[in-house]
Amino acid sequence: MKYLVNSVWESKDNYDIAVVGAGHAGCEAALAAARLGFKTIVFTVSIDSIALMPCNPNIGGSSKGHLVREIDALGGEMGKVIDKTFIQSKMLNKSKGPAVHSLRAQADKANYSKTMRQVLESQKNLEIKQTEVVNILTEDNKVTGVQILSGGIYYVKAVILCTGTYLRAKCIYGEIANNTGPNGLQAANYLTESLKNIGIRMYRFKTGTPARIDKRSVDFSKMEEQFGDEYIVPFSFTTNPDDVQVDQVSCWLTYTNEKTHNIIRANLDRSPLFSGVIEGTGPRYCPSIEDKVVKFADKERHQVFIEPEGIETNEMYIGGMSSSLPEDVQYEMYRTVPGLENVKIVRNAYAIEYDCIDARQLKPSLEFRNIEGLFSGGQFNGSSGYEEAAAQGLIAGINASRKLQGKESIVLDRSQAYIGVLIDDLVTKESHEPYRMMTSRAEYRLLLRQDNADQRLTEIGYEIGLISEERYKRLLLKKKIIKEEIERVLHVNIGTNEKVQALLKKYKSTPLSSGTTLAELIRRPELSYKILESIDEGKRSFPEEIREEIEEQVNIFIKYEGYIKRQEKQVEQFKKLEKRKIPDDIDYDDVKSLRLEAVQKLKEYRPVSIGQASRISGVSPADISVLLVYLVGR
Amino acid sequence: MKYYNTIAAISTAVSPSGIGIVRIVGKEAFEIADKIYKGKCGKKLSEQKTHTIHYGYIVDNNKILDEVLIMLMRGPHSYTGEDTIEINCHGGVYVIKRILEAAIKYGARPAEPGEFTKRAFLNGRLDLSQAEAVGDIISSENEFALRSSISQLKGNIKKKINHIRDEIIYHTAFIESALDDPEHISLDGYVDKLERDVCRILSEISDLISTCNDGRIIKEGIQTVILGKPNAGKSSLLNILVGEERAIVTEIEGTTRDILEEHINLQGISLNIIDTAGIHDTEDIVERIGIEKAKEYAEKADLIIYVVDASTSIDENDEKIIKIIKGKRSIILLNKSDLDMIVTKEDVKSIYFELYPADDIPIIEVSAKKNQGIKEFEKIIKNMFFEGNLALNDKIYITNIRQKKALQDAYEALNKVNESITAGMPEDFYSIDLLEAYESLGKITGETIGEDLVNEIFSKFCMGK
Fold first, then answer.
1. Domain ranges of chain A
2. Given CB atoms, is B454 within the 8 Å cutoff of chain A?
3. Contacts of residue B181 in chain A, CB cutoff 8 Å?
4. In chain B, what residues touch A295 (CB-CB under 8 Å)?
5. Is domain A469-562 classified as CATH 1.10.10.1800?
6. Which residues 6+ apart lie within 8 Å of A346 measured at CB?
């Protein structure tokens, strides 16, 4: 829709950075910018939707938990807020290796939003304004400001777009198609046109959410209760674990059945997905229940998780049954599920379509390649999920600030962080669906654990200016002690005395025939650093507040040393190519003997390094060799 | 000066020539050479002075492979600017490849096409104005290597490897989907199945590796057999292709009593050409054996060149040969086109099609003696090769060292999966090595990982939310 208003006026207040949208990306972006000293204004269509969770009521999960940890290690906010507002917490994959342990917490949605809003409201340098941004103003391919719905113009030095699912949003179920954002909120209908005018390529994506139901209408006796962990680990490295040992609320597990599936099959012709009303591309990882029934036709049942939306509400979320079927069909199908026979729907399930960008137009710093000073993050970049959004928002906020500081942008690479993998994938790979983080996307995941996010990133966060001196010093101390302790454990000899053999016997471990090192014993699957404490006579004492973290780190390193070292070697190889930068002004037509396909792809993506170039599909190893040779010859 | 990891390659043409050179270049070149070299004087190569020559043996597993001269050059004074070892050995396709394999076994990586030149350039050993030429070398050599190595893959090998890859990616995707969505997908009891499958796949890969070894003994290249009745000009043809007088050429029938074998390189395509005794009824016992052998070779051949004497009329011997080449990849040459041609293309065609109406067959007029029509003949072979019509023999040969190395890498990676299972490691560790095996096997078929895993996860397993 074209914006046509004649009453143009200019804001009298001065700001450095404007953030468009106050969802999970916008909040992190705005906080980072303000904390780094820039006068920041964040625009939102509704103050009441700040840090809104319009879909699932949880934060974290496999690999997403890693993102939250990394956001925290860099000085972001998400981890701190969820630590204050969670109502159940679980460490997933605990029986698997440490690399795939991942935290997931059920959030009290309203409380999460309220708490984040308070953080924003009390942040120095940060102001919030409720309005719709309709225009991005540029001059000579450089951003100069934004225009709001009433015609007002705000001149700024950088703009960060975090519009989430609001651009030309359309909510669809059955034959109903409302032009609203999530939860019936106002959509932003003008901005797309403005973005297209400044040469930005847009995509249209789709996602969906299940119904919310009234707790009083659910028969929990027919479901399996799902408890949280007994001992709760906080997300934030700054949260005292004692503070999160609180009472938890349960979730509930039930299943669909043949009856459910029959109803869905019988009504497929009424689904906008199958009838072609929906044009956007949906994500494969959170398929609607009708998608699941069609695609996995031989599955007799699908799991359904009933999750509370908060403490002070009766609303519950039906995890696993998102849908865009007509509301009468929704009633019918939900009521076939054991425990939901008399269920009352408070908000019906729907699919949502929205405009987003082809993120290959971005540099790895999340600045648009063709428009200086324009940054973006979150679902607007074609991702999915609160955590993915927050991570990009944080990086966009940091890099917009660094641009104004005249500093080099922060680009995390694939060997440093899941955030690095996320952004590299977004800006390098073509995507036809909202991008979700997955642990299998991280090549070096043994090194990118949630337990060592602080060791990987907090120094960078300190350098940026988002980590306090105190926190930085504590980290350095922790790293130093870990290093010394690993060294000691590798060399401590353990004799075959009675005490040792008795301990081994207790844990059904083969007795020692001759002396060995403590490290060798720790490597046995049935033993650990902690178990062997009592026979480790030279063990030193650590500062109490970081004792457990240190012991965990030493245990992991010793146990998986072989694997960790192998990955470190791979990373070394990877870094070599990553460090070879490709100059901005390279003319690929000038590179003789590159294959035509490679020239086209390289022109399209304009990779910043040889490493990034090598990940573009259609660029072969020989093309990379040719490119290397050309760069040296230049 | 940059020091890259160590690469090795045969830097002379792979042919049964008098001598061959294997070159090892990179930071571990001396270290690797020390592991496979036993000098007469007992001193290690790494302790020797630069630009010196040493005499000794190449040894692998206490087995002497060859008696060699080694040229040692320390960087930066070498072609690429890095530490360099050049092993001068006694040629022969088999020996030289065994030496290269030994170098790879002890840590060198097979050089990429054009890599020596590339390194020389990157290390500033070549003039900057040569950059473009270097780029051309890399891309053209690469294209050729890629086309030839993949088209040399027999359909059934490719099928076999792809099948193994499918299995591996399926297992990986299953593990990964369970890690990504632990509440919907469980790995309980899965390890036993994985272990069984990995063991089976290991033995399948091991079979493939041993067929590589078979292939090596029979020499690399396309098994090509020249058939024809006595004195049709088979040996003359061979001589032209080889470029020297190897086969005895006389006017007397049955001069070629033994099977003559030659390895030639036809514009980059390796042909292993076997000249046979002329096929006709004979009482001579020695010659009889020769004819039997010819039939036997023809049976195993990838390509048959049937030389017809166009100056004499077709007889029952020709018909015998046509029966032999039935259904085989063949080319018919009407030789002696310089003389009065009694037999025409149409004559041969009609006889051939009467027997096998379904087949088409290239027929060319040549004169081996006057070197006419040979270019056209070579072009046909080249086209057959690149169109994939011409490949190695039915028996599975993966003769390419790179492919064997990839198989070995895959084997090792899968072995690590087994070790992890035995050691009681958690499941997420398996997928690291499974993916590595998947990637290695992909190198053989020319495929990369890309989004394979993510696609497999979504297409095969129902994720939650």
1. 9-163+359-464, 212-351, 469-562, 580-633
2. yes
3. 62
4. 462
5. yes
6. A211, A212, A213, A214, A314, A315
Nearest to B138 among A438, A446, A622 (CB): A622
Q: Class for domain B7-111, per CATH? A: alpha beta
* Nearest by CB: A592 against B135, B182, B428: B135
DSSP A317: E
Whether B426 contacts chain A with CB within 8 A = yes
d(CA B317, CA B280): 6
Interchain pair B113, A622: CB under 8 A: yes
Q: Helix, strand, or coil here: B154?
A: coil
Give yes or no for residue B423 having a pLDDT over 50: yes
Whether residue A60 lies within 8 A of chain B, CB to CB, comes out as no
Return the CATH number of A580-633, one of 3.40.50.800, 1.10.150.570, 1.10.3210.10, 3.20.10.10: 1.10.150.570
Report the distance separating Cα A621 and Cα B143, nearest Å: 11
Tokens in use for B283? 């009482």
CA dist list (Å): A436 to A77, A161, B23, B224, B397: 20, 19, 47, 54, 43
Contact criterion met (CB < 8 Å) for B118 and A629? yes
β-partners of residue A90 are: A104
Residue pair A93/A113 in contact (Cβ under 8 Å)? The answer is no
DSSP state of B270: E
CA B422 – CA A393 distance, rounded (Å): 44
Q: Is B76 on the interface with A (CB under 8 A)?
A: no
| A56 contact B CB<8A | yes
- CA A53 – CA A565 distance, rounded (Å): 40
Segment A19-58, tens digit of pLDDT? 999 999 999 999 999 999 999 999 999 999 999 999 999 9
Q: Which CATH number fits domain B228-382: 3.40.50.2300, 3.40.50.300, 3.30.420.10, 1.10.3300.10?
A: 3.40.50.300
Rounded CA separation A190/A149 (Å):
9
Q: Mean pLDDT throughout B82-98?
A: 82
Closest to A445 in 3D by CA, of A424, A416, A423: A416
CATH number of A212-351: 2.40.30.260
Q: What is the pTM of this model?
A: 0.79
Which CATH fold topology does B155-216+398-460 show? Answer: Four Helix Bundle (Hemerythrin (Met), subunit A) (1.20.120)
Contacts of B355 (CB under 8 A, 6+ apart): B322, B323, B326
b/e map B195-219, b = 16+ CB within 10 Å: eebbeebbebbeebbebbeebbebb
Q: Report the 10 Å Cβ neighbour count for A26.
A: 31
SS3 A506: helix
Q: Does domain A9-163+359-464 have CATH number 3.40.50.880?
A: no
Average pLDDT of the residues in A360-384:
96
- Residue matched to tokens 């908000």: A347
Cβ-defined contact of B180 to A439 (cutoff 8 Å): yes
**Interchain proximity A622–B462, CB inside 8 Å:** no
What is the predicted pLDDT for the residue at B255? 46
